[in-house]
Amino acid sequence: MRFGPGFLVTAAFIGPGTITTASMAGANFGFSLLWVLVFSITATLVLQGMAARLGLVTGMGLAESLRENLSTPWARWLASVLVVSAIGIGSAAYEAGNLTGAALGIQSLLGGQLQGWSLLLAAVAGALLFSGRYALLEHTLIGLVLLMSLVFITTMVMSRPDIPALFEGLLLPSIPAGGLTTTLALVGTTIVPYNLFLHSSLVARQKQRLEKNELRKIQCDSGLAISLGGLITLAIVSTASAAFFGQQLEGGSGMNAGNMARQLEPLLGSLAQYFFAVGLFAAGLTSAITAPLAGAYAVCGILGWSTDLNAKRFRGVWASILLCGALGASTQMSPVAVILFAQATNGVLLPITAIYLLWLMNKKALLREYRNGFKSNLLAALIILFLLGLSSYKLWSLL
User: Fold this and answer.
1) Helices and strands in the chain: count of H runs, count of E runs
2) Is 207 left (phi over 0), alpha (psi -120 to 50) or beta?
3) How far apart are the C-alpha atoms of 163 and 156, rounded to whole Å?
4) What would the pLDDT profile of 111-132 be if each residue is shown by its tens digit?
5) CA-based angle 119:236:289, to the nearest 5?
6) Are 301 and 61 in contact (CB under 8 A)?
7) Which of 134, 203, 307, 396 holds its CA 20 to 30 A away from the CA of 221?
């Protein structure tokens, strides 16, 4: 089969933040939180599957659909403010971390100044986006995802994880003492609202014929790519568990995505260090490309602007996101206030977007025979209830 938009979704959610969160989960709690990953990937498959079907059937991305189907001006205005805040500003806030993560990976391999690598990688991401060639972007990101898969899975195999304990963590849900925050972080780093906008827009822009065979191809692509993303995250958790479980490391005292590559050397040897550094580079670069792209699709779609890759406003939005990230990475600023704002707005946006998507997927006039069935609605409703609880907890903790 041909790889497609689903792999860009995986490229988007496997980034330095995911590596750090998965590393913390494995280091502090071993395999006990792997069941959270199973839930997160299942929820992502359901929601992204609906988003992709929406794009294929309607020919519109989620943002355009949101704008077209909200009947009152105040509702469209509120949606525009929320999407621009959560997706546009949020992407800019996280972009510095994406570039820094990629730069840390390449610095571990080649040395040099972190700021210089950050600026160079921002230029590479900008050149790919400015080319306006979707095929080039897709092939680059798919290649980087496959590279991540190779290096992280190989590193996991080298770490020789405890297989019975791994399956126990996958199948027996439990939250160990002090593990609630990490549990929520694992969910939040996998189920992200801008991927719903990105996936639907990428499928819609292909303008393929609406056939059940085509829908099946899109579903297979999404299932394979998102499952592969889950496997990558599982590999990171497993490697961190084998290397660090029992040390009770904290994110600010030695355990982060930048230095984990070096810390693995005593257990796995020098090759594993370089493998992990390559994976970190690939994860950071994929997110550094997809975050501006997703932000541009969401912002331009909700504001009624063209979502063509060569449109001036589209380029202006992704360039602004990339520039903010490059400035943050090159000056090593920590935009804490902006990131907290982005987390809060994303916490509000995710369940609202999921509820709207579920409502839309039941509109017979819009989707005809492609609308949701009972089982899909039940599963989506359960996921949304959990996301509402997650968002409420996030907002409470931030405030």
Assistant:
1) 19, 0
2) left
3) 11
4) 888 889 999 999 999 999 999 8
5) 30
6) yes
7) 307
- Residue whose token pair is 């260090």: 273
Q: Please give the average per-residue pLDDT across 44-66, as a whole number.
A: 91
Q: What's the pLDDT tens digit per position in 100-116?
A: 888 888 888 888 888 89
Tokens of 381: 């409703």
Among candidate residues 104, 118, 130, the one with its CA nearest the CA of residue 325: 118
CB 295 within 8 A of CB 88: yes
- Quick check: 250 pLDDT over 60? no
- Return left, alpha or beta for 132; rule: phi > 0 is left, psi -120 to 50 is alpha, else beta: left
Q: Supply the CATH number for residue 321's domain.
A: 1.20.1740.10
Q: How far apart are CA 334 and CA 329, in angstroms?
A: 9
Model's pTM, two decimal places? 0.87
**Element at 335 (helix H, strand E):** none
Measured CA to CA, the distance from residue 339 to residue 301 in angstroms comes to: 23
Residue 218 Cα to chain centre, angstroms: 19
What pLDDT digit, counting tens, does each position of 364-374 carry? 888 888 889 89
Nearest to 44 by CA among 153, 259, 167, 194: 194
251 falls in which pLDDT band (50, 70, 90)?
very low
Residue 161: what are its φ and ψ, rounded to 5°? -70, 160
What single letter denotes the amino acid at residue 177? A
DSSP state of 363: -
Number of domains in the chain: 1
Taking CA atoms, 77 is separated from 51, 71, 91, 295, in Å, by: 22, 11, 20, 18
The radius of gyration of the chain from alpha carbons, rounded to an integer in Å, stands at 20
Which residues constitute the domain of residue 267?
5-398
Cα–Cα distance for residue pair 82/65, rounded to 1 Å: 15
